[in-house]
Amino acid sequence: MTTLPQVLVDPSSPAPLHRQVYESIRRSVLDGTLAPGTRLPATRELAASLGVARNTVMLAFEQLIAEGYLEGRVGAGTFVTHSLPDDLLLASRTSAVTPRGGRDENLSARGRLLADTGRLNRREPTRERAFRIGLPDPDAFPFSEWSRILGRVSRKPELALLGYGESAGYRQLRDEIAAYLGAARAVQCDASRVIIVSGSQQAIDLVARVLLDPGDAAWIEEPGYPGARAALAASGARMVPVPVDREGIVVDAGIERAPDARVAFVTPSHQFPLGLTMSLGRRAALLDWAHRAGAWVIEDDFDSEYRYAGRPLASLQGLDGYGRVIYVGTFSKVMFPSLRIGYMVVPPELVDAFISARAIVDRGSPSIEQAALAQFMAEGHLARHIRRMRSLYARRRELLVDAARRRLGGLVEVDAPETGMHVVGWLPDGWDDERAALAAQREGLVVSPLSNYYLGEPPRPGLLLGYAACDERTIETGMIALAKALSTLGVQASR
Questions:
Q1: d(C-alpha 337, C-alpha 485), whole Å
Q2: Quick one: 265 and 169 in the same domain?
Q3: Is residue 171 part of a domain?
Q4: Burial classification of residue 380, based on how many CB atoms lie within 10 Å of its CB (0-12 exposed, 13-18 middle, 19 or more buried)
């Protein structure tokens, strides 16, 4: 029996711990480090040696057994299978003989982090399965109006649209965005401070490039958005997870852990993934700290348009009297993700630096789509679409909560804030939400385990359930399938 010294886990990595254990063992099997027939340590023993929960190792073992790398023998333990094809093993050994010893070892530390994050963020092309988070309903989008405008712009584009364009983005679109943000989100800006980017992820990456040096501390919400965590960590910044409670990020805890942090990443209008809204007191405390510390606050306002009780809340940036907030938004949630147009609003003294960084990264976003979007907004189509979606998603949220109550009673406690595009389904204490997500996947569902959004151990297990892209039938049938998956899991957990 081997002690598996080659299994390494990195709690600061955005990759889930069970996935890190799985990848390490799988690599060792394929490159021959773990020979066929090798007996592995018991899950409890391996978990203790790695400093992780036993369920983390069990989940990795289950996946390896399902894929044929390991086999379990009743009363004997878990072994490397004897039935791996010779050509697979040979190909793996051959590919492993590289100048630096392996695929991941050929990468820089930043490259390995980016590769791990890429594996986390891969998406299937279809959206047929419930309950994928973060997707708007494409069937409800006014493609007739969008196609008409896009066709008009494309048929005879002005010459400026065929060149590289402004690195900051198409001026008319920046004008429209500034007007929209001022009216809808109380953002303080004009077009000169708006920079068009290829989605909010690029905006966060630009902040990391422009404002962070290796070793700088960065506050991130715990739990929080893994994409932001990865973008900031890839710059060499030191991640400082700051807990979130019912009022939002706990500023005092952040000050205690890293008073001199360079940036703080927050989602104040709709905390991701819990759905909370940052209180006015916390907003004031965060801005006061940023002012005193000379720090920058990244406000990710990813889906605040979807608030179902009253008007959308004013932005954190609109309260900022010190000029410390960098506001980030995207059209992915209000239109469709493949548009790949987002925006950031930066303080005046940072504008030139960010435009230069934007030019270095990829010169700019496609001009024709920007021009079409500017006209789409100017003609009022975007505002009307958002109003329709706010009503539609509110109904779907109610349908999901009702279906969960009827189908999942006793299994899941649904927390459904009156904002956003998903809810949190809390599982019973002691359950493993990653295993629950795998069970749901086997029933044809896509749910996200809440533990994936924590750097540390989550206080409660839970699942994120998206509803925006699910019609009534999909919600109902999805809940039936989820109830089946969790009921089976519940029987296993009670043994």
A1: 30
A2: yes
A3: yes
A4: exposed
What CA–CA distance (Å, rounded) separates 396 from 465?
Answer: 12
Based on the fold, state whether residues 354 and 283 are members of the same structural domain: yes
If asked whether residues 219 and 148 sit together in one domain, one would say: yes
In a domain, 132, yes or no: no
Cα–Cα distance for residue pair 53/458, rounded to 1 Å: 12
Q: Over 60: is that where the pLDDT of 98 sits?
A: no
Residue 128's pLDDT is what? 54
Assigned domain for 159 exists: yes
CA torsion sign for 320, 322, 326, 331 is: positive
Q: Residue 349's domain spans which residues?
A: 142-380
Provide the greatest CA pair distance for the chain: 74
b/e for 58-80, b at 16 or more Cβ within 10 A?
Answer: bbbbbbbeeeebbeeeeeeebbb
How many domains in the chain? 3
Q: Which tokens is 241 given? A: 């997870």
For the cut 90, the answer to whether the pLDDT of residue 323 exceeds it is yes
Q: Are residues 346 and 462 in the same domain?
A: no
Tens of pLDDT, residue by residue over 170-212, are: 999 999 999 999 999 999 999 999 999 999 999 999 999 999 9
Half-sphere exposure (CA, 13 Å, Cβ side) for 21?
25
Distance in angstroms (rounded) separating the CA atoms of residues 268 and 270: 6
Take residue 204 and report the two structure tokens written for it: 């966060």
Integer Cα distance of 66 and 70 in angstroms: 8
Whole-angstrom Cα distance, residue 424 to residue 175? 37
Residue 298 has pLDDT above 90, yes or no: yes
> Are residue 56 and residue 202 in the same domain, yes or no?
no
CATH number, domain of 169, equals: 3.40.640.10
Chain length of the chain: 495
- Tell me, yes or no, whether 235 lies in a domain: yes
Name the strands in the sheet holding 413-415, side by side, starting at the edge strand that comes first in the sequence.
413-415, 422-426, 462-466, 448-449
Same domain, 272 and 156: yes
**Residue 108: pLDDT band by 50, 70, 90 thresholds?**
confident
Alpha-carbon distance values, 116 to 14, 82, 122 (Å): 7, 29, 10
Q: How far apart are CA 240 and CA 215, in angstroms?
A: 11
pLDDT tens, 51-93? 888 888 888 888 888 777 888 887 778 988 876 654 454 444 4
Q: Work out whether the CA dihedral 367, 373, 374, 379 comes out positive or negative.
A: positive
